[in-house]
């Protein structure tokens, strides 16, 4: 029976002759390396799923690769079900395409660039919009070929500023990236919705708790971009959602309301007060015996500029005023007309030059006219507020817009906080952390326009293709699944992506013929029934062997020992409730596992 092909739906891997632990490279560690920051990273290394080669670059050990392949296969099945077609684009891409799209300049140091022996520029793909658009402009000729949705599961390289958390933010990682091509916007949005649904199915099948949230569309604009976030406290993203409605958005995008309905009348006179050494709003209000919400903080940003000759000139300084308990949202700031070409925080030198004072005592009163002041919607409605006096060691109280300084420009510039009203008005916002594992994005004609990718319509007229792009962090999903599934003993995999679903642990495999025969038979029968099973033939002490499989996180464990066999029984334990053991009749064990 050995080597029979697996027929079960769960067994998506190529069937092996035998899957025995001795010949399978299992390499666990008692301790996690000290540079492993989060539990998924620690457990993946300890369980021998991955091995670090360089910062953000990992080897997939056989055990880890099995789970990675299972994730890939679920993604592949659902992409195919949704009508997408798989191809494989080269990892190495010529610079010319990136120059054509303009991203050769824009992408920055995350893009790994190199030269070949002829001194020609190339990149290792961090993503493939350019190459797929080039493919489309050659291959798609007529409206009759549309819509088209192409995807690949491929290694990506991004020279991340801070690779960390193991496979969660690697530099080399596996991504599923897909791209749709349609005749018009209506078609493109249909393709988008199809992918959105496919993603729902994928992450459900992967056994994850996740949320689809509205996301920023950056320079492309429009309202069609969703991130799929796996809920986890260790996530790098913050999600704002409303428990009373279906509102959910990345905090980058979530609108923050004005929490002061109308600006109060001025009741105080402006007064300069000494606040030596009090650079933080909290310290200032404590000294003055005021509420934090009566104080304003200023953030100074700079947008670099060039003159007609292309020479760098003084940057545009933009001062952003926020109520002291609120935080700047940089994505929102990046949409201001003065900052949309790019901005940075002003340096201390630039601040001293613009305000005549060091940070900590800055404010919008009496400043140079070439400094642009924006107030967040809430800050704009504050009255009798406190801000810096632009003089070291001093603040001003009783400041009022209009009376003491010009009315500011206003915009939503802060992060939402818990308790803010949801934009749909249905309840208060709550926040939770998430790991972005997927992203669907309506691109419009951004790339097709730049690369002149067109098709001929019914009238033989060339029309620009409408595009969407759809990414899934395949390797990041391994980490995300572990963040959601683990205990003191180790990983608890969702059944669908565990490296094996069942392990047989025989006691005294080589010495006891009775055990060997029974274990081999159960193994063969499970295999024949399509169960993804491994037999541990390593002759380890039971405690050590069990601890290893608990660490690796295989869902079902069958222990075969002489004592049980004499009663015609084997012992079964489920990883989630590993302490509870159950004796099962030997002849029933295969059916029992299948039922589970
Ligand atoms: P992030 O905000 O996390 O950097 P991104 O917006 O750069 O993500 P996309 O370009 O949309 O990500 O890439 C698609 C998917 O690839 C992401 O949803 C994420 O799951 C995954 N991904 C992105 N960067 C990495 C990385 N450095 N390591 C592992 N997976 C990644
Ligand atoms: Mg990124």
Task: Give structural notes.
With 596 residues, this protein is of the alpha+beta class. It contains 16 helices and 31 strands. Strands 3, 7, 8, 9, 10, 11, 12, 21 and 24 form a nine-stranded mixed β-sheet that branches. A five-stranded mixed β-sheet has the order 16-14-15-17-20. Strand 27 (502-506), helix 13 (513-528) and strand 28 form a beta-alpha-beta unit. Helix 1 packs across helix 12. The longest helix has 21 residues, at 185-205. It is globular. The chain binds adenosine-5'-triphosphate (ATP) and magnesium ion. Adenosine-5'-triphosphate binds at residues 127, 158, 160, 169-170, 173, 175, 436-439, 471, 473, 475-476.
Would you identify the regions where 5 or more consecutive residues have pLDDT less than 50?
1-15
SS content category: alpha+beta
Overall morphology: globular
Q: How much strand content do the residues show? A: 25-35%
Q: Which ions, cofactors or small ligands are bound in this entry?
A: adenosine-5'-triphosphate, magnesium ion
Structure summary, number of beta strands: 31
